[in-house]
Amino acid sequence: LAAIAIFPAVFSMGLDPGQGPQLVFVTLPHVFNQMPGGSIFAIIFFLLLVVTTLTSTISLLEVVTAYFGEEFNMKRGKASVLASALCVPLVVLASLSLGQLGHIQLFHCNIFDFLDKITSQIFMPLGGLLICIFVGWILPGKDLHESLSNKGKIKLRIWSVFYFLVRYVSPVVILLIFLGQFLR
Q1: 80 lies in a domain?
Q2: CA–CA distance, 158 with 180 (Å, rounded to integer)
Q3: Within 13 A of 117's CA, how many CA atoms are on the CB side?
Q4: How many CB atoms lie within 10 A of CB 83?
Q5: Which residues have C-beta within 8 Å of that of residue 42, sequence separation ≥ 6?
Q6: CA 95 to chain centre
Q7: How many helical (H) and strand (E) elements, i.e. helices and strands, does the chain have?
Q8: Is residue 21 part of a domain?
Q9: Which domain holds residue 142?
Q10: Full pLDDT tens readout for the chain, 184 residues
Q11: How far is CA 143 from the centre of its chain?
Q12: How many CB atoms lie within 10 A of CB 166?
């Protein structure tokens, strides 16, 4: 949705649309500067961006926090502080790679772009593939059906189609997407 607002401004100002996530911090300040009352809109926009980022971060840290709590018998507060503290060095490196540490290159990318690429082009497709393999081939179909149907309380009309897709179609499509990343 943000692209609908950002990309017309990028092209009208002659900026490079391939700047990636930093486009928000380059393009939108130009747009806000040219608007009447742009400073107010900029403050509102960037405050909402901070809120959105924080809420996303909280949901991402929830998995790690729950893992520490269950695996190491930690209280929730301590587990969330530990999970956050473990992320800080990586976050600082990624942030600084857009400025002071921009000269450090990993596979012809700065640290931020490298982390973005391995996350979106390698980890996500591999995770999806492993989930399909687990759900389609390792987890017994009866258990999956029972879980998805809330022990039979919800009628699954397209169960056989879903199960076929998870077992045969989705892994092939995900594998093609994964392999396609290396052909660019």
Answers
A1: no
A2: 30
A3: 13
A4: 20
A5: 28, 29, 32
A6: 16
A7: 9, 0
A8: no
A9: 105-184
A10: 566 767 777 777 777 777 666 677 777 788 788 878 889 988 998 999 899 888 988 888 999 999 999 999 999 999 999 999 998 998 899 889 878 888 888 888 888 889 888 988 889 999 999 999 999 999 998 888 888 888 877 887 888 898 999 999 999 999 998 898 888 7
A11: 29
A12: 20
Count the domains in the chain: 1
- Is 23 part of a structural domain of the chain? no
The whole-model pTM stands at 0.66
Ramachandran angles phi, psi of 166, nearest 5°: -65, -35
- Helical pair 38-71 and 23-34, crossing angle rounded to 10 deg: 150
- The answer to whether residue 126 sits within a structural domain is yes
Instruction: Tokens for 136, please give them.
Output: 């389609």
Burial bucket for residue 36 (CB in 10 Å: 0-12, 13-18, 19+): exposed
